[in-house]
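Sequence in, structure out.
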Amino acid sequence: MATLQLTQVYLEPDQKKALSAKAKTQGVKLSEVIRDAVDTYLAGVTSEELKLLDAATRKTAEDFDAMSKQLDTTNAKLDRALAEIARLRRKAA
């Protein structure tokens, strides 16, 4: 790992609270969350792009959930139809 350099940064209380909560959720130190944020900034990713990506990801998750439910419904109908075909074949035999 590269040698880290101490840098003092002043944050708004709400910023520190939110960053600390994020770090705790991720199971990492606050400094790592801040370094990740700096890396993202240096890579040229804007907060607007992150918001758009987040919204798209959430919409995609909703769409996948809806498709999954539709597939479950379709599979249940198919199971009933196949069971009925099997019952009719047994009856005909």
